[in-house]
Amino acid sequence: MEKSPGTPRPTAKDIAADIRQEIVNGTLGPGDQLRAARDLAKEYGVTLVKVQNAYRELSEEGLVYSQQGRGTFVVDPAHPANEVQSGGSAFIALATEISAIHETVRQLGERLERLERVVNSDGSAPAP
To answer: Which in 1, 35, 37, 119 has the greatest CB count within 10 A?
Structure first.
């Protein structure tokens, strides 16, 4: 994320938003290690403290956890036993809701496939 000289430096919130987006879109998955804060600070052209603050914000949201001497990792919502490191019951509730949405989408996909088979077996052309 190279910035031109006239571009304002990103804030800790901006950095956290970028990482949050990587988690949401699947670029970073459960258990994945975040980049070293020093490397990210260099990439963004900001101080180490800004990146550490971004990591802290994500940790408080329950999206990541840090292990001394190992790094910062994306939380795995499938393992609620990590409740202390994952941000508590609010995170668990959100993870449960996301899981339910995922299951609903999967079921809708199956229903759509069945409907398409019925339409195709009838000899009609499938809808565009």
So the answer is: 37
Q: Quote the percentage of the chain above a pLDDT of 70.
A: 76
Pick the CATH number of 12-121 from 3.40.50.800, 3.30.160.270, 1.10.3720.10, 1.10.10.10: 1.10.10.10
DSSP string covering 40-84, please? Answer: HHHHHT--HHHHHHHHHHHHHTTSEEEETTTEEEE--TT-GGGHH
Residue ranges of the chain whose pLDDT lies below 70: 1-6, 78-93, 122-128
- In angstroms, what is the C-alpha Rg of the chain? 20
3-state percent helix, strand, coil for the chain, nearest multiple of 5: 60, 5, 35
3-state secondary structure of 37: helix
Quick check: helix, strand or coil at residue 28? coil
In the 8-state DSSP scheme, what is residue 33? B
Residue from 57, 51, 55, 38 nearest 11 by CA: 51
Q: Could you tell me the two tokens for 72?
A: 């910062």
